[in-house]
């Protein structure tokens, strides 16, 4: 699945795995902040969200870690990389 298409067609949920402080400094409108260290405790909550999940962070490292973990939990998700890239795709929605 193409991440850009998922975002532009509003097919899933955008999850930002940065810290709350980083998230408050700027984020993708409509995204949900779940810091990386909270992912294991919030798996059931994540399973109930509209899939696929598009994960993002500052550079793609933490969202990559979250992606690897969540795939093993059976959750359909993609590493969207930097929140700035995800925000750019979202800004293309007309």
The topology string of helices and strands comes to HEHEHEHEH
The unreliable regions are: none
Distance between the termini: 21 Å
Question: Based on CA inertia axes, which overall geometry fits?
Answer: globular
Strand order of the largest sheet: 2-1-3-4
> Helical amount among residues, as a percent range?
25-40%
Oligomer state of the chains in this structure: single chain
Major beta sheet, specifics? Answer: 4 strands, parallel
What is the percentage of strand-forming residues?
15-25%
Cα radius of gyration in angstroms: 12 Å
Mean pLDDT: 96
CATH architecture: 3-Layer(aba) Sandwich
Q: Determine the structural class based on helices, strands and strand pairing.
A: alpha/beta
Question: How many domains is the backbone divided into?
Answer: 1
CATH domain class: Alpha Beta
Strand runs, count: 4
CATH topology: Oxidized Rhodanese, domain 1
